[in-house]
Amino acid sequence: MSRLTTILVLLVGILAGGLGASLLARPAVNEGAVRAIVEDVVAKAPKPEPGLTPSAVETIVADFIARQPKQNLPGSTAVATLDPSTLNPMIEDYLLKNPGIMQKVSAALEAQLTAERMAATKTALAELKPAIYEAPGQIVLGNPQGDVTLVEMFDYNCTYCRQALPDLATLLDEDKNLRVILKEFPILSQGSIDAARVAVQVADAQVDYWAFHQALFTNRGQVDKAAALKAAADLGLNPITLEMGMNTPDVAAVIDQSYRIADRLKITGTPTFIIGEEVIPGAIGLDALKQRIANMRACGATVCPAQPG
Length: 309
Prior knowledge:
By secondary structure, the chain is an alpha+beta fold. The protein has helices at 3-18, 31-44, 54-66, 84-97, 99-133, 159-174, 190-204, 209-217, 225-233, 239-244, 249-265, 286-299; strands at 22-24, 79-81, 139-142, 148-154, 178-184, 272-275, 278-281. It has two domains: 3-112, no CATH class; 129-299, Glutaredoxin, CATH 3.40.30.10. The protein has twelve helices and seven strands. Helix 1 crosses helix 5 and helix 7 packs parallel to helix 9 (225-233). The protein is elongated and about 85 Å long.
């Protein structure tokens, strides 16, 4: 069912069946009255922020009906009900002839859903703060005491993560007050999982993790256990010891934590960046990352309010 049809069914249901209103001793509802109801709803509809909710529509229509003058019919207690079989086609016909109404309702609904998603993300980020920023043994690059923290969740076999690597390298080179946290999030293949299990151990070793990280992302072909063990061996680590430690509980716990963070934040792809109260899917480019970092320093958010004038 398309969004337009879904919203139409919702609106028709509220006006006809959902409202369940009856008009005591009032004139029969004709097409003109239906048009008046719909126009009154649209006129009273709030702007896209905070959005037009079903309960708001119901309240508006109920108020409109309540304000209609009663018709005094001596001795009459007849009830003129809103018959859905008659009313629904009339509303549908009117809305189809006036598509601008549906655009307004759709925009309001989209604004409401976006606001709800942002609120849910903000709550989840607050609850996950220790796991995201303070997890023991996590990979921290740049300035450990930096005033802004950028988190990247990545997979070594992710093409877009590979494309984002130069952006991350530039940020680390140019911004000496940036803290970067890398979180293994292997989701593309078993090879990705095996490489991540090796990488977790490399992060705990006294070697240059950033060199290991770059070596895997510049590796030709698929990144798997063999590629990760070779890159680790090039840094002086024992590949046999690393292979034996791949399935230990400590290694599994680090990767499982990334999965839990992703599940809570509805993250399904890589790379995904986290900065402030924003979760950013995809490789958005160096300039976009720089702007968000600058905004965090300027106003404490990735998007700063527009300055008056």
